[in-house]
Amino acid sequence: MELCERALAAHGPILFLTGAGVSAESGIPTFRGAEGYWQVGSENYHPEDLATNAAFRRMPEEVWAWYLYRRGVCRAARPNAAHLALVEAERTLGERFVLVTQNVDGLHVRAGNSPERTFCIHGNIDLLRWTDEHPRTRPLPEAIPVDWPKARRLGEAERALLQRPGGTWARPHVLWFDESYDEPLFRFESSVSAARRAAMVVVVGTSGATTLPSLIVEIASQRGIPLVCINRDPSPFTETAAQAPEGLVLFGSATEYLPALVRCLTG
Ligand code: OAD
Fold first, then answer.
1. Residues 4-16, buried b or exposed e (16+ Cβ, 10 A)?
2. Which atom of ligand 1 is nearest to 177's Cα?
3. CATH classification at residue 19
């Protein structure tokens, strides 16, 4: 594909930007798909309501239970062909490879991408933070069961691991809707800098609803560099790519198109 050849002949990173669609074929429900709600008592919550600092302050135990259940789903999932293609891309492209992911499931690094070149801009569901230790993150305590049924609530044991005697809670290491990106925790500047230097941006499996990914796609489009968008459904990013001077939209599945694109980039 000529687009790939032009990108490889230029200088700068090949930036891959991934979203929940990349992990969908591993069995992890997407955010805005039909399964993306959560019940607390008789109330149905959407992720946009629950994944907030405000909700955590109001009902920390319920928010934790939601994350512990989702952590179990993520851990049970295995990397798919799209994840493995990105491992191959890093192996071949080396320092020219940058992966910016919105996924908190950890599947890219579990598949074999390096933590140094994988910017987890929305955090990692396997980590927690104590608010008084910013920006330090820690793995969740091993005593918390990984297999967490949907209806399970926090017990004394988990409460003791997630809350200090004074009452301070540890929180999941994820970016919430009422919070902002930063560099130490979420690699904001590194991601923007990579987009400004990139020779090509490849966007896969995201609805285009969050601000840093939108900024990356906007930068790519304004710079006129090759911009490839692989997505099952139309999104603001497929629209931008369709109008970009060097844009290409591939409607379909990540496991089908991403390995094919990576083959073009890696020979
Ligand atoms: P969404 O659930 O919003 O969008 C998933 C996108 O993937 C949709 O556009 C689908 O059409 C597409 N898709 C689904 N299955 C696919 C497949 N097999 N192959 C290709 N595309 C597929 O998920 P995100 O865009 O990742 O943020 O959501 C972005 C962020 O919003 C999340 O990281 C999360 C959420 O709020 C935070 O937690 C801060």
1. beebbeeebbbbb
2. 39
3. 3.40.50.1220
Name the residue at shortest CA distance from atom 16 of ligand 1: 21
What would the pLDDT profile of 215-257 be if each residue is shown by its tens digit? 999 999 999 999 999 999 999 999 999 999 999 999 999 999 9
Stated pTM of the model = 0.97
Q: Answer yes or no: are the C-beta atoms of 219 and 194 closer than 8 Å.
A: no
Residue of 46, 122, 134, 173 with catalytic role: 122
Name the residue range of residue 219's domain. 2-266
Total domains in the fold of the chain? 1
pLDDT band at 36 (very low <50, low <70, confident <90, very high): low
- With a CB cutoff of 8 Å and minimum separation 6, the contacts of 96 are 12, 13, 14, 199
Angle at 183 between CA 127 and CA 114, to 5 degrees: 60
Q: Is residue 108 annotated as part of the catalytic site, yes or no?
A: no
Rounded to whole angstroms, the Cα distance separating 21 from 257 reads: 12
What is the Cα–Cα distance from 162 to 141, expressed in whole angstroms?
9
Give the orientation angle of helix 188-197 with respect to helix 211-223, to 10 degrees: 20
- Token look-up 């600092």 returns 53
Q: What is the DSSP letter of 52?
A: S
